[in-house]
Each structure stands twice: as C-alpha cells, then as structure tokens.
Amino acid sequence: MNSGLFKSFEHVDLTVTVNDVTTRIVLIYQPPPSRTNGCKTADFLDEFASFLEVLVIAPGRLIILGDFNIHVDNASNGDALKFHDLLCSMNLVQLVRGSTHASGHTLDLVITRSIASPICTISDVTNDNSLPSDHSLIKFITDISRPHATKTTRVIRNIRSIRSDQLVEAIKKYKPVDTLSVNFGKKLSDVMDMLAPAKKKVIVNKARAPWYTDELRLLRNNVRRLERAWLSSPLEINKQIFHGARTSYHDECERAKTQYHRSRIQSANTRKLFAVVDEITGDKKSTGVILPKHNDPQQMAQDFSDFFCGKIRKLRDTFHDVT
C-alpha cells in the first residue's frame, strides 16, 4: 500500500507477536525508475533512509523484503553502492545472492539486522528460478514459533456407533424389571461401557478471537459442509452455492470485528482509549519495552552512540563550505 508518507515506493508493514517475541515484517516495492512514472532512485534512497531510521530503533526482530529494482549485484553501480552503504550505516545486511530476475540481476532482496546481532532470525536463503515468472521465488528460514497451545483431556463415547437392536438386546439381559428400575443408572452405565466404551481424547484449545461468536462458528461449519458437497459433486451450482456462503461468512466476520472494536472505542474513557488503539494497531509502546534485546548494556549504548555519531558525520560531510 502507499501510505502517502513515501512517494517513491509502496510498502506493507506487519507486526507479528508470538510468545512475547515481536517480529516486524516490511514488504517493499520500488517501481522501476523511468521518465513515465517520474520515479528516481535518489528519491527512493532518501525516503527509504528515513523509513529505516524508524525501523531500526524499534525493538524486536526485523525482516525487510521485496522488489527494490536496484542492481545490488553490480559493484560498479552507483545506486547499488549507495544502497549498500545505507544498509551498513543502519547495521543491516542483505542476504540474497545470485540473480533473482530474468535480466540476470539481483532485484528481490531480503534484509535483516546484522548477522552479528542476537536477534537476526534468517538463514538458508535460496533462489528458485523454476517458476514461470520473470522474478525468482526467494525462500528462507526464520524461527517464528507458534503460540503455545493448551491441552485438555476429555472422556468421549462413540454413541453413534450403537445400533438400536444392540441397545434393546443389552437392556433385555437385565431381569427382572424391578431390579432394572432400582439400579437403572448403574445398569445403563454398564450397557454404555459395553457398547460404547469411554475413551480419553486430548483436545488442543485454540484461542478464539473475542469478536468471534457462536453464530459465526455455525456459519463456518455450513461453509465447510457446502465445500465438501462441492468436492464430492463438482457441479457448477454446488460451486456457486459454496462461494456465496463463503463470501457471506467473510462479510459477517468483518462486520462482527468492526462492531466489536467500535463498541470498545465508544465505551473507553480517555485513558483507556490509547491502550485500545495501541492494541488494535499493534503498537506495543504502552508495554514499556523500548529497547531492543541485548546481552551487554554498555555495548548497546556504544552501538547507539556510534550510529548517531555516524549520522552526524555524514551530515557534516554533505555541507559545503560557506565563506
């Protein structure tokens, strides 16, 4: 998306928090510079530098990827050299090697914090040129773990497997009727244990979104049922019914989510409103965690000092002597 803050590139900014570990994923697209679109690589470098200044000081892991349309593989390319210097000044590293485009250049990049950083989380970056596209598929491994799931043990019986004739025959074995009526509960339990023995089953409890209602769950079950009907009988009418139900389900989810957040905002006081907005937008500043993870506080302070001193030196170098 183009947020309006930057004119030379488009970006999508996502924040994923799992098990108290935050990973920021930024997708970048710089259109190829041309006279038609008026884009210039120099403008991109200036705006991207401003964007990186915000990204690198944020805590947590950082992954920047996308189509940058800069020939970073060309060591004699002036724009590529400036781009490399920019990444180095921000303590970032570009991990893609080899051609990623049909033209033979490296345009699609994966950028993260320096390899020496304890929060660098990317490894095994590879290029897949087998797809019918002018761009390669970039693959890499990152250690974003799944949330810890809680488990519950339940006792279940397969009641549906009991046939009516089996149940009748099992009950007839208990005579006389008076004895059965006195110990009805125990006798019926014995019958159930014989025909449908109890089994323990471990259920993984999945966290449900607070706006997700039982009505939405029923709609989802209906969508799954219609999908199975379409797969078992791939008629066009079944496909249309399934797609219609799926669209309605997604619309209802969006409506429920919007209504839930709207009611929270409307009912919040001034102090609570900021916390609600931070939660919705993914801004975790209210948690008090403002520094990146580090092992040595003195080294981290030195890194900050070197970073800002380096920026000041670069600014001074750009000034012309005025006499």
TrEMBL record:
<dbReference type="InterPro" id="IPR036691">
    <property type="entry name" value="Endo/exonu/phosph_ase_sf"/>
</dbReference>
<protein>
    <recommendedName>
        <fullName>Endonuclease/exonuclease/phosphatase domain-containing protein</fullName>
    </recommendedName>
</protein>
